[in-house]
Amino acid sequence: MTHRLSVPIVLLLLLLAACAPSPSSSTAAPPSSQPSSVAAAFPLTLTDDVGREVTLEAEPQRIVSLAPSNTEIVCAIDACDRLVGVTDFDDYPADVVEVDKVVTMAQVDVEAVVATEPDLVLAAGNELTPTAVIEQLADLGVPVMVLYPQSLDDVSASIELVGMAVGRHGEAAALVGEMATRVGAVEEAVADLERPRTFYEVSVFEGTIYTAGERSFLASLIETAGGEPVTGDALSTSIELEELVAADPELILLGDATYDPTITPETVAQRQGWETMTAVDDGRVVVVSEDVVITRPGPRIVDGLEALARAIHPDAFAAAP
Amino acid sequence: MSPVVEIRGLEVSYTDARARRVVLRGLHLVVTQGEFLALVGPNGSGKTTLLRAIAGTLPLDGGRVALFGTELDRWSRVALARRVAVLPQSLALPDGFRVAEIVEMGRAPHATRWFGSSGEDATAVERALADADALDLAERQADELSGGERQRVLVAMALAQEPELLLLDEPTLHLDIAHQAALLATVARLRARRGLTVIAVLHDLNLVAAHAPRVAVLGSGRVVSDGRPASVLRPDLVREIFGVVVDEAHTADGRRFLVPHISAVERIEPSLHPHSINR
Amino acid sequence: MRAGVAPRPIVRGPALTRAALVLGGGGAMLFVALIAGIGLGSVAIAPDDVLRVLGHRLLGIGATAGVGDSIETIVLDLRLPRVLGAMLVGAGLACAGTVFQAVLRNPLADPYIIGTAAGASLGATIGIVLPLLLPGLAIGAGSAWLGLGIVQGLAFVGGVGAVLLVLTIARSGGRLPSVTLLLTGYAVSSLLAAGVALLMVASGRALAAIFSWLMGSLAAVGWVDLVIAAPVVFGVFFLLLARWRTLNLLLLGDGPAAHLGLDVGREKLGLTLLATLVTSAAVAISGTIGFVGLVVPHLVRLAVGPDHRLLLPASAVFGASLLVTADLGARLAGGIPVGVVTAFVGAPFFLWLLRRSRRVSESLS
To answer: Which residues of chain B fall short of a pLDDT of 70?
Structure first.
């Protein structure tokens, strides 16, 4: 990969977005008040995840997505062929790499966005799409919807919102229902199980340890998957080694092993100061290779949940097919 | 006609981090039109301070200074600059300017045009260059000049102000003997040609003795002796003020000069001077 | 002693032909940069489409049938304000740099040297972080006032405020000695920069936004920004140009300037405030773009000399050209912050300048 060093840094920024809690209220703004089973007529005014009102004159046919999770949502509700602009980090489904790139290295090229003549732009919240860019596009008269899910319920709400926006409400409702079933299955399976203190390693960079922030999406995922998350600072998502040792995790999940093959249970056990942790002592340090879906708040988040559940309670779940 | 400079009871002090140092105390001085007054005194006696006080760029703690009959605090800076010019000690000139452009800056107090210079300015600059013997330097770049040449340029710049009073702050400090002589000759010429009044701080007593019609000696913050060099610069006074033993000598045509004793053993504490000087 | 008048008048001001050449050449360069900046970008647009759109909207000639809406939007609402913004910011920073180099008599002075950058950075960082801490200020909920974002407003206030603080501390008895000003500026800047660093640590996900602002970028410049910044830049420029004599005199030193009738303390204060105003306005709309204010006055001085009658306007024109070109380069290189481009170009030049001045001073000693 040509941008080897920059990948972890940019991913770090993406992960910070996923792991840090929002300062706004913990419940997402409610989507349009119309029930999802009723066909919506255009023109349509919707409220996005950060409370902005967006008016769509007609059903959008040219959609630009400014985050990989948004792209996945659009494709999951069968509107993939309407995508005219994506980011260079989009990789699922495989076809989207053919679409024109309007975001390179997390920099949004507003000119390129305008050039695709979009009638709907799906931006990401939490400064992943800079506020300045959102305002600039809005000023130019481009309909911009900001998606900012911070929990499993929020992801479903975002999917329904996009479904309303692009006239695929039926597909959205079906997808959401399927996701809910799978989540329910996980919750049931772990309901009576003991919850190990679980530390999810997002990355260790220059001596700073990044993990799930307090009250963050990732923390709630770990809880749903049957673990008790060891969390870091809400804003910076970092945790001091001292604090980590004091928290004494019983299970360590190596999310960064997805990207760096040198991170293994053996190398972790050799880290200075880590040897006293119960997890290291008991040898419960597990490589996680599904970090992408664990941290991408899109339709595959349930895959991530299931991966977490398997890692935390291997006996309760059969291995993934 | 009122004197050019009239000073009564002048008091000037400096305040630094620790204390207030009084430099001039109860100083009286009168200078009339056309005079050439040399100011001498040991290091730290306040010569430069006095000059700056006369130029109006130092706040006064007490006493009165009147220039051309008007109190100093009633003068606007620009009006003062039209009649009083100061030749600074430093020979530094900014890079990149032609000599003529530097001299033209001396016209600032008289400037009437917004963007350019008037005919009057051009005439004044040419005349100033000529009087300062610097006409041949006009097209040269200021940063390429030697020390003596810079001195001439600075004199020209001062003359471009068309002053009536010229204040010189140790003008011979960086000059070799030839240039020192040339400068004093220039001063004499200017006095004659333009009717200038000149006050010059000089450190070389022999130069003063040879060229200055009047000399004022500073000590303990005031003028301790004022008059013709022959009567003022006597060995006993020099010994008192400067703490140096000097002998008088005479040239063949009768001019007087002072030769200091240099002795490793003898040290005299000057009686009037607050600082001691090692010789 | 030579009498008589030289064939060429000795007192003649900057040569008219030279002035015309420099300003004319600079103007031509600016024009070319403008055209290139509007015509080129990450999206390829045919040159005659560009001309048609411009001609139609600005001069009312021709028609834009056949030119897509998106192309019109890109040219008129994205590129045009951005390029004009680059002109304003480049000109403003170059003028401010020229003035500070004269007032402080220091060739290493740039527009930010007495605290503007640090103050504006702190203001902007607070503006970026505040909405994340107080949800009531988030987008769509009143974060803009009169079309200006909090970030721009706080950046401007921060820049001017920091300098006022420095001036208050450094001023003693009506005098403003250059060295004191420089050192006080350095101390206050360090303090404010520490504040910025602290906020950066606590900012979490806003870090990228803060960093991008610090590097400087013209991406978000809109028509509202231009309408507010343009009068400041033009106004300050003409006020500074009117004081060309003062600026020249200050080069002689504080003492000689005072003896020539200048109220040195008051003039330095006034010039500093003017330069700070224009710098803060520039920084408010573009972040802290480095090197333009330092490098352009030196380059221009090499070409036209130190007389501010010509130096100021020439610096403004060349500063504008430089930044328009640098911004074009930044856009074509994939949207990197323009401050990165100016640093790449400016830093080697800065080193060359240092070597040159060292050699000159060594040859004099």
So the answer is: 264-279
Residue C1 has pLDDT above 50, yes or no: no
Do the Cβ atoms of B197 and B29 come closer than 8 Å? no
Q: What is the mean pLDDT of residues C254-283?
A: 94
C-alpha closest to that of C229 among C269, C275, C277, C274: C277
* Range list of H helices, chain B: 47-55, 77-81, 99-105, 119-131, 147-160, 177-194, 205-211, 229-232, 235-242
> Would you state the structure tokens that stand for residue A210, as one six-digit string?
């990044």
Copy the structure tokens of residue C88. 């304003």
Q: Does C258 touch chain B (CB under 8 A)?
A: yes
Task: Return the sign of the alpha-carbon dihedral for residues C27, C33, C34, C35.
Answer: positive
Query: Is the pLDDT confidence value at A72 over 90?
Result: yes
Mean pLDDT estimate for chain A: 86
CA-angle at B263, arms to B260 and B266, nearest 5°: 105
**What is the Cα–Cα distance from A252 to A197, expressed in whole angstroms?**
9
Q: Name which residue leads in pLDDT, A35 or C88.
A: C88
What Cα–Cα distance (Å) separates residue C46 from each residue in A284, B55, C62? 62, 68, 16
Task: Please report, for residues B67, B69, B79, B197, the alpha-carbon distance to residue B32 in angstroms, rounded to integers and kept in the order given.
Answer: 10, 11, 20, 8
Residue in this structure with the two tokens 């070597």, named with its chain if needed: C355
Quote the CA–CA distance of A152 and A149 in Å, as a whole number: 8
Contact C335 A107 (CB under 8 A): yes
Residues, chain C: 365
List, in sequence order, every residue forming a beta bridge with A123; answer none if it has no partner. A146
- For chain B, percent helix, then strand, then coil, each to nearest 5? 35, 25, 40
pLDDT of residue B264: 63
Please report residues of A whose CB lies closer than 8 A to that of C134.
Answer: 23
Q: Where are the alpha helices (DSSP H) in A225-300?
A: 241-247, 265-269, 278-282, 291-295
CB-nearest to C13 from B86, B116, B129 is B116
From CA A253, how far away is CA A260, in angstroms rounded?
A: 14
CA angle centred on B112, ends B110 and B115, rounded to 5°? 120
- Collect all residues of chain A within an 8 Å Cβ-Cβ radius of residue C141: 51
The one-letter code for the residue type at A86 is V
Among C297, C128, C343, C138, which residue's Cα sits nearest to residue C220? C128
What tokens were used for B158?
């001062």
DSSP A80: G
How much is the pLDDT for C2? 47
* Cβ distance of B97 and C306 shorter than 8 Å: yes
Q: What is the pLDDT of residues B62-118, one digit of tens each?
A: 899 999 999 998 999 999 999 999 998 888 999 899 999 999 999 999 988 777 778
Q: How far apart are CA C25 and CA C23, in angstroms?
A: 5
What count of Cα atoms within 13 Å lies in the side-chain half-sphere of residue C224? 14
pTM (2 d.p.): 0.84
- Name the 3-class secondary structure at A228: strand
